[in-house]
Amino acid sequence: MLKAMGLVLIFLSALPTFCQSTSAYQVGTITAVTPHQGAAGSDPFGASYDVSVKVGDTVYVVLYTPPVDVGTVKYAAGRDLLVLVGEKTLTFHDQLGTGSELPILSHMTVATQSNPTPESPQLQTPIKSLALVGLPGVKDNTEGTLTVEGGKLHFSCSKGASDIAVVVMDDVVTGDDSQRVIRGTLGTISRFGPYGSGTFLSLLRSKVDTLTIQYRDANGGLHGVVFTVPAGTAESVKKELIAQGAHTSIPIQTETSAD
User: Fold this and answer.
1) Distance between CA atoms of 66 and 102, rounded to whole angstroms?
2) 152 DSSP β-pair partners
């Protein structure tokens, strides 16, 4: 009985040391395996390898000589294992639980790359606008703001909002486009807007820009909506709409003027 109690006490006294040593093990990753210099031409059963193991922000190069070299260590790169880093040695256990203490040949600190935080998509600055005619759910001549985001043209006002998906836009025309058509460069397009709106809107282009959009509903019906926006902004809205999938019958004006 006393002998059994003595064994228990010995085990309990050794337990803190065992737990402390186990907790000191860290996860290491084998990053590279190369034949050890001077090992070429030697007995294949005594071949040695330089094994690079990354632990935290440090890479240790250790000398490993397998009991029997069957070449499997050459393909160990990328494998994780528990290691105990000492002052001059690195200890690990194989799958059978056999511990191996390997001499550290060299070590170096590497910079750890933190995962970059994905940038939030930059929302377009709302543009002051007037929904002149044709916008569903919004009364004619309603003041609000326009933004292009998430594949939609979004109009917001004090009494609500309305969206048009860019994928259903058959045509996007600006006041500048209308002026080009008037000069005879590209012919005529439906009087430059629904309900003949383009005819009188072209008279306002010195003070505001016009944006005319033709789109189709879920049943294929053709509709039109006309906005006015501050001078010099309609073309940028058109470019953004086309970039997100809208169509246009008049290509975006290039630097060379067509007359």
Assistant:
1) 11
2) 149, 165
Domains of the chain: 25-109 (no CATH), 127-243 (2.30.29.30)
Coil/strand/helix, residue 219: coil
Report yes or no: 100 and 91 within 8 Å, Cβ to Cβ: yes
Residues 6+ apart with CB under 8 A from 92: 28, 81, 82, 83, 84, 99, 100, 102
pTM recorded for the entire structure: 0.45
Helical segments of the chain, H only: 2-23, 175-182, 197-201, 234-243
Q: What is the pLDDT of residue 62?
A: 92
Span 31-89, pLDDT tens digits: 988 888 764 444 555 688 899 999 988 999 999 888 776 677 777 788 888 889 998 99
Parallel, antiparallel, or unpaired for β 160-165 and 152-157? antiparallel
- For residues 163 and 166, what is the distance between their CA atoms, to the nearest angstrom? 9
Going from the C-alpha of 53 to that of each of 37, 67, 92, the distances in angstroms are: 18, 20, 11
* Residue 151 DSSP one-character state: T
The separation between the first and the last C-alpha atoms of the chain, rounded to the nearest angstrom, is 111
- Whether 135 shows a pLDDT value over 60: the answer reads yes
State which H helix or E strand residue 223 sits in.
strand 222-230
Residue 232 is given by DSSP the state T
159 vs 142: CA distance, rounded Å? 9
The size of the chain, in residues, is 259
